[in-house]
Write a structure and sequence with these properties.
Layout lengths: L2 H25 L3 E2 L2 E2 L1 H14 L8 H20 L3 H14 L2 H8 L10 H12 L4 H19 L5 H4 L8
Antiparallel strand pairs: 1-2
Helix pairs in contact: 1-4, 2-3, 2-6, 2-7, 3-7, 6-7
Protein name: Twin-arginine translocation pathway signal
Length: 168
C-alpha cells in the first residue's frame, strides 16, 4: 500500500468511529432526565476508586460504603449543572459506557466494573497526558466531578486536614 492510501484509510476509519460513537451516545445517553444511568454510575464508581485510591478508608467495607455514598452526591452535582453541560456530560458518559468508546477514549479494555484500580489509573493517566484535547477534557471533567463530590462530604475533610468551617 502507498502512504496516501494508508492516510485515506485512516481518515475514513476515524470518521466511521466518530459517527458510530456519536450515534451510540445519542441512543444510549449517560444521563436520563438529568440523572446518572446505571452505566454512568459504573463509570464514576470505577473512576472514583482509581482517583481516590489513597484517600479512601483502608477497611474494604468502609471504602465500599464511601463509594456507594459518593454516587448520590455525583448525581446531585450533575443535576445542578446547566443544561448544555449536562448534555455534554451525557454524551461523554454514553461514549465511555460502550466498549468501543471506552477503548478509544480511555484506552481501557475491560469494562468499568471488572477493571482493576491499576488499569483504570493507567487509563486516566493516558487521558491526562494525551495531546488530544477531547481526551484531556474528558479526564478533567471526570476528575473534577469525582473530587468535588467526594470532598463535599464533611466526613472526608479530616483526610485533607481541614477542620471545617469556623464558627462565627
Amino acid at each position: 500500500m502507498q502512504r496516501r492510501t494508508w492516510l485515506k484509510l485512516g481518515a475514513v476509519s476515524a470518521t466511521v468511529l466518530i459517527l458510530a460513537g456519536g450515534a451510540t451516545a445519542l441512543l444510549q445517553p449517560g444521563l436520563r432526565q438529568g440523572r446518572l444511568t446505571p452505566g454512568a454510575q459504573d463509570v464514576f464508581t470505577s473512576v472514583a476508586r482509581a482517583i481516590l485510591d489513597s484517600t479512601l478508608p483502608t477497611e474494604p467495607a468502609q471504602a465500599q460504603a464511601a463509594l456507594t455514598g459518593l454516587v448520590p452526591r455525583i448525581d446531585a452535582l450533575v443535576q445542578a449543572l446547566p443544561p448544555h453541560a449536562q448534555a455534554e456530560l451525557s454524551q461523554l458518559l454514553g461514549l465511555l459506557g460502550t466498549g468501543l468508546g471506552r477503548r478509544t477514549l480511555a484506552g481501557l479494555a475491560p469494562d468499568w466494573r471488572s477493571a482493576s484500580v491499576a488499569e483504570v489509573q493507567q487509563a486516566l493517566q493516558s487521558m491526562r497526558s494525551s495531546r488530544l484535547g477531547l481526551r484531556l477534557q474528558s479526564y478533567q471533567a471526570l476528575h473534577d466531578i469525582v473530587g468535588a463530590a467526594y470532598f463535599s462530604d464533611a466526613s472526608t475533610w479530616p483526610t485533607l486536614g481541614y477542620p471545617g468551617p469556623l464558627t462565627i
